[in-house]
Write a structure and sequence with these properties.
Chains A, B, C, D: This is 3-hydroxyisobutyrate dehydrogenase-like beta-hydroxyacid dehydrogenase. Chains A, B, C, D: It comes from Mucilaginibacter lappiensis. Four copies of one chain form a homotetramer. In chain A, about 50% of the residues lie in helices and about 15% in strands. With about 300 residues, chain A is an alpha/beta fold. Chains in contact: A-B, A-C, A-D, B-C, B-D, C-D.
Chain lengths: ~300, ~300, ~300, ~300
């Protein structure tokens, strides 16, 4: 039946996406490393699977939302992976933050196998995922994009098409995460400068967040940075570091010197080296700036 | 009479401020290095003055909006400067982007002379000045802030009070200009990365400007950066470099290491070294990133 | 017979090493991508081979001196590669500048095949290679180091043992190349600073090279940098960039933030992006600093 | 009498210089903030003075060796300063590490007063000062250089002439101190990289110090950095930071972007911000790199 799809990855974002797909009437064949996570979903619409291959069996679409390139490749190509059971002509919608190289590589392998791959990374934290407010970037084959559209429309407030290249959407996602990190760093520097000059960090953050920079990224991250409010952990520093590495690597492969990417990469590398990998990336950046300044 | 004030500095921003003060019923004693600039103002409400001292003579308020610390000090303390004629108890509202040290220094000198000084730097480009949409930051003596309030309300959409310190408002202004520059640099890097990976700079800029970063700074500067549209010149690189120096100096005096300030300072220093000082700071940053990447 | 060894890689350094081995009485089975390069060697002591496998056939030692990790892996593991014919118990002495990961990987593969691998990277340019003045770093299995010793003694003025780890010597080599690059960058910056302050670059370079920094690296590179003498090309920028990437990658994998490595990586990445990949790395650095300064 | 000269500044270097001048037969009119320091000198050849003016009274040469620009200006121009008593035609030999601007400024003021100023900064730590092994850089008026020569020859192993400009020698000194700091930073990064890859820091330092970088700067600082031996304090971080500021300022005024200067400036600024200002600059750099790497 048409409305059955595979769904792999019940992380912070994935779980809300799965719920929204169920609300839209889809039945999900779910795989997750910790499968008990699927108990949060309505069992009437869920088939729990022991392997990625089982999740991909008999569906025309399988969605993956995973932590990094290596996990995506293992889930797709490894033993009991998606490719072992994905039907011919079926589509793999890959929503993880991965390098464009990985998308190019998987696109080729899917083509060889008679199936399809579509890069569809997204912007938004858990609350946005829950509220169907994600922004989803896609690029690749037109037919794949057409097939994916109705499914993606259930997940976000917009699907933006960045052309025919297999990895273009991944480039946009990596660029965007860099811009978010750079926004956090600039606020941490500015508010620490204000603090060391006798001003109230929170007032300065509030001013910028309600005037020149009145968007949620500056408002929400800005409040956390100003108040040195580093918990609960929303997005781990080690994942932020992974994103910084992706941006750095892309700057290498495309020969684009990017001084701010360098600075952010150093910031997050140092955070991980200091043992803050499990802390929120707001802490990696905010505390990093503060400690360098001796406060 | 109450409604007569001194006004010094008819630059890109100053000219609109003067017009708005006139619209609000003020009569201005105007001084400008190029005094013919005052011909753009309604002569019924303007007295042209040959020196800063004359502009300050007999008023209870004199406003300065000048290019840098040195000019402000010269206009205030130099031969035929404000201090020679400013009446006792009168208030000097200083709206230029200058260092907090300069504000502290001038506050002391005004106090010694029996007059007052108020730092009141602003955010906004020429269009915002024209539309009374500036954001004005103030800090210092409460009485000075109270006296300035009705005048400043004629110029912007908000006056924000950053406390009692003489230079606090200048710190906020410097921090804000750094954040604007950092926003430009991050966009230039991100959009060049996109370009070198085969994407359309303008589409990427449009996406970010209408989603995660939907504020004018990212929209307007973003469009110019994406399109490599560097003219007409709105804000000169040499002034941007001055602002980067102010931020750098503040990071030194307050012992706040700021990696992004370093990066921006280098970017603008290099622009000036290459002879682009008269070009718009969008060009300094955008073209700088492009040239480093060989495009 | 004992004195026959395989030799792969007749580049700028390799050709002199081969000549010195011949002078020491070795007979070489030579492979090089451009095999005609072997015509420079005494034919009485050379067997030209059409493949790496042939060069490794029947010898107890094969030496490789190649441009990067990928070439080394292809020559060793590829079709007609060393592993196809290298005898059991034979030793592969790997003198290229490669990552420690590559050495660890090849060590394992050699062990599985019953042969041995030794990392033995070197310091010194062509003249040092010719004069048997190279410094050779080794690390790995003790037996392998003992076997290699008499051969390596024919090539340099010292063999330094950095312990048992497969890749330790590569780490030292990568660290050393970073230090050389950083020395060049610091001179380029210092001498350009001198120039822009009205001093004679060459005199300043001569002063430092004969006092505080009186070692060949500072003297020879210093003279070239001071005189902007970028030809003939000794070591290509694209190879320098490769070394910067190795250093950067090592800083990532070992979680060691290294600001100067960042700066050098950016410098060489930008040089390659600007199309200077075939120019000497002295030019990449020297001209890079000059252009940023507008001279 | 010819052999009487003024001498101001009995710091770590100054005290040895004073001793060597006495050994060469000079009688010194000494001023030091802590005058008891002069008790270390042979009283037969010393006149203790209560003010800089007294030290300069009646001599044809006065030497200053002080901590920074501000102290030099105060000692020279302040109340009871040198200028109050220095005879006409006398020469002020300024051996402190100061900006070229200060030398230009003092040269003009001396000229107006009918006396002379010569920038003569030096390279070498206390042991070198004691052993008359300093390198002394001079620039300025030829007659001043001729007059100073016999005195300077008593203090070092070489006097190098960098031309006619008042501040040229200061530029060389600032460039050299930057090169020393950059050498320390590159070693700290390289040896920490080695450590985190399982190698012995000290062995790596010993290797580079006896081969490619066999000069005292790399050997002595290298040993201290490798062994994390940060005491006794030879040169304070806050003075190192002052030197980094001088280099940075010079890069600004001469429009020379210098990425390594940026990195060093940040390193030392952060050390001072963290409260390490009184620690040796080896600690500022060595410990800074280690802490960023979490070791």
């Amino acid at each position: 039946m048409e409305k059955k799809i595979g769904f792999i990855g019940l992380g912070t974002i994935g779980i809300h996406m799965a719920q929204n797909l169920i609300k839209s009437g889809y039945h999900l064949q779910v795989y997750n490393r910790t499968l008990s996570k699927a108990d949060e979903l309505d069992p009437a619409y869920v088939t729990k699977c022991q392997t990625p291959a089982n999740a991909a069996e008999g569906v025309h679409i399988v969605i993956t939302i995973l932590s990094d390139d290596d996990v995506l490749k293992e889930i797709t190509l490894g033993n009991q992976g998606i490719m072992e059971k994905l039907p011919e002509h079926a589509l793999h919608i890959s929503m993880s933050t991965v390098s464009p190289e990985t998308s190019e590589h998987l696109t080729l392998l899917h083509e060889e196998a008679g199936s399809h791959y579509l890069a569809a990374p997204l912007f938004g934290r858990a609350e946005a995922a829950e509220a169907r407010k994600l922004w989803i970037c896609v690029s690749g084959d037109q037919h794949a994009k057409d097939t994916a559209k109705p499914v993606l429309d259930c997940l976000g407030q917009g699907v933006i098409d960045f052309g025919e290249s297999a990895g273009g959407a991944n480039v946009v996602k990596i660029a965007g995460n860099f811009m978010i990190m750079a926004s956090m760093e600039m606020m941490a520097e500015a508010y620490t400068l204000a603090e060391k000059n006798g001003l109230d960090r929170a007032q300065v953050a509030s001013f910028f967040g309600s005037t020149l920079f009145n968007v949620p990224i500056f408002q929400n991250y800005g409040r956390a940075i100003a108040n040195k409010q580093y918990e609960p952990v929303g997005f781990k520093s080690k994942l932020g570091y992974k994103d910084a590495r992706l941006a750095f690597k892309l700057s290498q492969t495309s020969q684009t010197p990017m001084p701010l990417v360098n600075a952010l990469h150093s910031r997050l590398l140092s955070a991980v080296a200091k043992g803050w990998g499990e802390a929120d990336w707001i802490e990696a950046i905010g505390r990093g700036v503060s400690e360098d300044a001796g406060v």
